[in-house]
Amino acid sequence: MEHLEDHERMDVWKTIEDALFNDQIDQFRAEFLDLHPYDQAKIFEEVEDDVRLQIYTYLSPEEVADVMEHIDYDEIEPFFTEMDPRFAAQVFAEMSTDDAVDILNELDKNKVASFLTIMDDDSAEEIKDLLHYEEKTAGSIMTTEFVVVKAGMTIREAMLHLRKEAPDAETIYYTYVIDEDKRLVGVISLRDLIISEEDWVISDVMSERVVSVSVGEDQEEIARMMRDYDFLALPVVDFQNHLLGIITVDDIMDVMEEEASDDYSKLAAISDVDGPDDRAFTSAKKRLPWLVILLFLGSLTASLIGRFEETLDQVAILAIFIPLIAGMAGNTGTQALAVAVRGIATGETYKQGKSKIVFREAGTGLITGISCGILIFLIVFIWQNNLYLGLLVGLSIMITLIVATLAGALVPLVMHRFNIDPAVASGPFITTINDLISILIYFGLATAFMSLLL
Amino acid sequence: MEHLEDHERMDVWKTIEDALFNDQIDQFRAEFLDLHPYDQAKIFEEVEDDVRLQIYTYLSPEEVADVMEHIDYDEIEPFFTEMDPRFAAQVFAEMSTDDAVDILNELDKNKVASFLTIMDDDSAEEIKDLLHYEEKTAGSIMTTEFVVVKAGMTIREAMLHLRKEAPDAETIYYTYVIDEDKRLVGVISLRDLIISEEDWVISDVMSERVVSVSVGEDQEEIARMMRDYDFLALPVVDFQNHLLGIITVDDIMDVMEEEASDDYSKLAAISDVDGPDDRAFTSAKKRLPWLVILLFLGSLTASLIGRFEETLDQVAILAIFIPLIAGMAGNTGTQALAVAVRGIATGETYKQGKSKIVFREAGTGLITGISCGILIFLIVFIWQNNLYLGLLVGLSIMITLIVATLAGALVPLVMHRFNIDPAVASGPFITTINDLISILIYFGLATAFMSLLL
Question: Would you say which domain of life the source belongs to (chains A, B) (predicted)?
Fold first, then answer.
């Protein structure tokens, strides 16, 4: 079957819901559980509350756990609140620990504590361990449901062990090999397991070059490694190389999406471009803080121009080119900023070295500045038939582009140096800073050469 | 072993290169092939040309193919040009067909034709088939190295078949089930295979609800499905449901990175934020076209203000607020644009309906417009002690924010309607358009109420 389009999904649901309303438990279960958990989750989001309450009574905690893992974490709270707390605790216990932890992090502390109290001790312990890790680190996205074997086992023993563990493990496509002290010593893929002879020993077949990440590693760096090395899972270790958990590729795809969306949001000066944005009010709430900050920065620009009021009074035509010059400063600054932010994100910056980047941006600013400067000189000279005005605007654009390009590149580099996320220096922020700089250059030059313009 | 940091990699290489220079083939092969192909590729990019030529002679085409699959496709051409053409053709034949096709698409047509002529017929045929698919569709990113079994096989027969095919297949973690006409009828994961009894029949164990994509499907949509459904691979079918290929998760991670970087680049008005950007000249080449377009648009703004020269002459203080008003229009437009572009990319737009989005944006513009309008009215009124000037600037900001928010949302929606990639309406582009609108509103109001301002 094809995957379900949004409109198909509710049509499919219409064929299933009769069974629910007529109390035909077996038929409902057969039809509903035949759907992919992602589609089950989308149906959960669409139906009325009382329908959902009835569905819970028809499914096991394990089956509900599968559904919950596919609901947006931003929107999941009401689902767990409407369930019977005992049932909800069982659902958490059945989920992958990494998903359970992600969701519990969205709920309020009291609720989390009460769920953990009701839950069976083993599951509660595993979840509590993971709740301690800092957000966006390996520890916070890893799961503890992995399969390990001892280096001395035969392939036959390992396969038997794997078959037993398969239903609960997050992935069985990599099996990690540990020594007596639970230190990670090797890895073997299921591919290698099934093509090996049954009486071979693991230590002869495993790869000893296990790529692992430390538990405090940043999730963006892990995503980069997984993409570069084409792994389906990565083991997470502590500083003594003890195996703590694994990170699987499906979680990394979510990380990639989250990080990309995050950078994009910041470039557009908005707290979060995605997420539930149904009402104008929620959406205004995400944008207003930025707009207000930018309004105050804009007032600074206005007061700066105010200082040149005398110049403006004498040569009113100067005002015509303010948006052009400020706009070009903003545009070139945003370009340089985007390159620098991506360079830091992809690690290119370390490879090339910061001074090299600053030199390159200075060169880029010089080339674009001279080109645009000459172009606008010609436009203004021909249009206004005024040589000195043309020279003033051309020279201003040239200097502005050089300075603004450097500023766009330097601001994120400096922020990164002081451990501030460089993506916070959003497009509109750098644009407004560059507005200020460009106005200063333009009116400074105009005031200095006033006699030529009159 | 930990994965290799950039500086470690060349240290490791130093311990290996002696073997190469002393012609100790076996030792060199043992040490070099023990590295992950990604690290091998990075070493290839760093060493001198003559060192690489020697390495080729020590490795088999299959081993070189592994390395080539991990080199950036933008930078791969020189490697294939320096190899002996016969050897290069063998390397292509040994690569995954999807990677071979991606690389061949980067080379010039004549070279591609000559490689295909030298190559063995089977491989050439497979590659030629894939070269026809349009870029960024399922066909262009799928590989034809997949494992299929017949529905009537037993688990034992299937496992035997799998063991035989494993070395060449792109993934063996999903096995696809086809009928007599090669139509896709089911899928079975390796996980299910190994926990099944050996004498069970595939058709009893397989899942008949195979999620598949059609060969012309857009790669961004495929990435979304893979993320939502947590798949490691997806089968690609034609309109008669014949299995044509598979797409694996490692390729999808590259697609996600590419699409994210693409949207980000366009928001910053730059042709490509990533890629080899070592020299100021290359980097200026990517930015200048946008800057020149924006320079001409900016000249339009200038000529628009020029039409209000009389107003400006009478009330020079008006000029002070030009960058503030134009800047706010640009900022709010970029926010609305980013939300709309992401909404289209993630499919949220279809779900919510376009008219709902337009209404929401109008509401958002109203809320932000009124808030910022009142705020700036107070600032200007207190600062300049001029009620009418405060009202003028406040009212202008209010109307501007409403119109600019709507424009930011509408432009990508309209572009999408006409099948133009909405991300092309980059941040600076919408910013410049909104500059024009805001100037018109501001000076329009100022001219109309001139008598109050004097």
Answer: Bacteria
- Which of A6, A38, A230, A310 is most worth mutating to test chain B (most B CB atoms within 10 A of its CB)? A230
Q: A322 to chain B: which residues are within 8 Å by CB?
A: 305, 319, 322-323
One domain, residues A62 and A117: yes
Q: Which residue in B225, B295, B360 is closest to A376 by CB distance?
A: B295
Inspect the interface and report whether the beta carbons of B195 and A167 lie closer than 8 Å. Answer: yes
Residues A226 and A365 both lie in one domain:
no
The H or E element spanning position B114 is helix B109-118
Of B287, B348, B371, the CB nearest to A288: B371
- A376: nearest CA in chain B? B295
Percent of chain A exceeding pLDDT 70 equals 94
**Contact status of A33 with chain B (Cβ, < 8 Å):** no
Within-domain flag for A208: yes
**Percent over 70 (pLDDT), chain B:** 94
Host H or E run for residue B235: strand B233-237
Quote the number of domains for chain B: 3
In this predicted model, what pLDDT tens digit does every residue of A342-385 receive, in sequence order? 777 776 776 677 788 888 889 999 999 999 999 999 999 998 88
Residue B276's CB: how many other CB atoms inside 10 A? 12
B284 and B411 inside one domain: yes
Residues A441 and A339 in one domain: yes
Kindly state whether residue B110 falls inside one of the protein's structural domains: yes
Residue of chain B nearest A322, judged by CA positions: B323
pLDDT on residue B400? 93
Please check whether residues B443 and B298 belong to one and the same domain.
yes
pLDDT at residue B99, as a whole number: 84
Is some CB atom of chain B closer than 8 A to the CB atom of A211?
yes
User: Which residues in chain A have Cβ-Cβ distances shorter than 8 Å to B342?
Assistant: 261, 264, 273-274
Count other C-beta atoms under 10 Å from residue A163's C-beta. Answer: 14
pLDDT of residue A83: 87
- pLDDT range class, residue B395, cuts 50, 70, 90: very high
- Domain that residue A59 falls in: 6-136
A10 inside 8 A of chain B by CB: no
B115 and B175 belong to one structural domain = no
A121 and A39 inside one domain: yes
Average pLDDT of the segment spanning A88-112: 82
Q: What is the ipTM of this complex?
A: 0.74
In terms of domains, do B84 and B220 share one? Answer: no
Please tell me whether residue B419 adopts helix, strand or coil conformation.
coil
For residue B375, give the nearest of A6, A295, A439 by CB distance.
A295
Q: Which CATH number belongs to the domain containing residue B107 in this structure?
A: 1.25.60.10
B38 touches chain A (CB under 8 A): yes
Q: Does a structural domain hold residue B257?
A: no
pLDDT bin (cut points 50, 70, 90) of residue A202 is: very high
Q: Is residue A114 part of a domain?
A: yes
Taking the Cβ of residue A360 and every Cβ of chain B, the question of whether any pair is shorter than 8 Å is answered with: yes
Is any Cβ of chain B less than 8 angstroms from the Cβ of A315? Answer: no
